[in-house]
Design a protein that fits this description.
hydrolase; disordered N terminus; protease; A_A_dipeptidase; two-stranded antiparallel ribbon; zinc; signal
């Protein structure tokens, strides 16, 4: 068998063989109950417009190392009357496959206005939607910040664009946002960096812990 083909087959097997939840993962909802959780892919409120494959429950599952770092980030925010808002953590490989089917279906444009108003659907491939996602390794998280008002309730900081808005305005250093919105993004980016996370410049909400071994891609359900 061609060596390159064999390597591709083994890599593909590595994605789909890992269907059991490994011991290095925890459920952040239990570890960090003071954070806010809005796990969109377990609902219809997302760019696909339906519950995504593999999201059985609206939970954030993530590696223990990344979870400990997020606890530390949230502690820093608590001193400012703020807290983390979590959108997505570990993402099963089957969910990524669901994204790929969606992006290749040109007839399905029902979420265009809300999620990619200025882009053609096919242009989402690569920068925004890939055949493999770092989320499937369990060290990547999508998140924002909420602040507590005088009444004691929380509201999301204005980041200049909504979560999962596929557009240049969602680039962390976008010139299209206000000074206050930029300061809010930098608050998130700097805190995450202080606790071991690297940002993704195209999406202000996307961070990966630097301990990510970048090897296995997992496929167990979120439940």
């Amino acid at each position: 068998m061609n060596k390159i083909l064999l390597m591709l087959l083994l890599a593909s097997w590595n994605v789909y063989a890992n269907s059991e939840r490994p011991g290095q993962f925890v459920t952040l909802n239990h570890v960090l109950p003071s954070a806010s959780f809005d796990i969109r892919y377990a609902t219809q409120n997302n760019f696909v417009g339906e519950r995504v494959d593999g999201y059985i429950q609206p939970l954030c599952i993530i590696s223990k190392i990344a979870a400990e770092a997020l606890v530390a980030v949230n502690q820093d925010l608590a001193a400012k009357n703020m807290r983390l808002k979590i959108f997505d953590c570990y993402r099963p490989a089957k969910a990524v496959d669901h994204f790929m089917r969606w992006v290749k279906n040109k007839d399905d444009q029902k979420t265009k206005t809300d999620y990619y108003p200025n882009l053609n659907k096919e242009s989402l491939l690569g920068g925004y939607i890939a055949e493999r996602s770092g989320h499937s390794r369990g060290y990547t998280v999508d998140l924002s910040i909420e602040y507590k008002n005088e009444q004691g309730s929380y509201s999301e900081l204005d980041m200049g664009s909504a979560y999962d808005l596929f557009d240049s305005i969602s680039n962390t250093a976008s010139p299209l946002i206000t000074q206050t919105q930029m300061e809010n993004r930098l608050l998130l980016k700097n805190l995450m960096s202080e606790h071991g996370f690297a940002d993704y410049s195209m999406e202000w909400w996307h961070f990966t812990h630097r301990s990510d071994p970048r090897d296995s891609y997992w496929n167990f359900d979120v439940k």
